[in-house]
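Weekly puzzle thread! Below is a chain. First person to post its structure in token form gets bragging rights.
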Amino acid sequence: MNFESELKKGIFMISECTHCNETVWPPSEYCNRCFKEVSWGKSPSEGKIMEFSRQNKNYFCLVEIKKGVRIIGSISSGTPNIGQNIRLDRCGIKDGNYFFEMSLI
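Winning reply:
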């Protein structure tokens, strides 16, 4: 199992070091702190908006899912606010690029 193979299935995974218990982000097979192996777990599906932007009628946001784990994705509907809770609805790889679709809670 690795990050991209699970993301292709629509599952967002986060790795944690089996030795020092640090969350490893960006995703890697080895800890970027102590270089030991990691274990993979399904990511929480909710987070908080750190920043957002708008292009035409579409909103995009930077979301912190877990301490140190931030992703950029599109918002399906509504007007976002910084600090607002958000849910990750869909993720995957399309045309070689990662995508994350979220909705406001």
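Puzzle host: Confirmed. Bonus trivia for everyone else. The radius of gyration is 14 Å.
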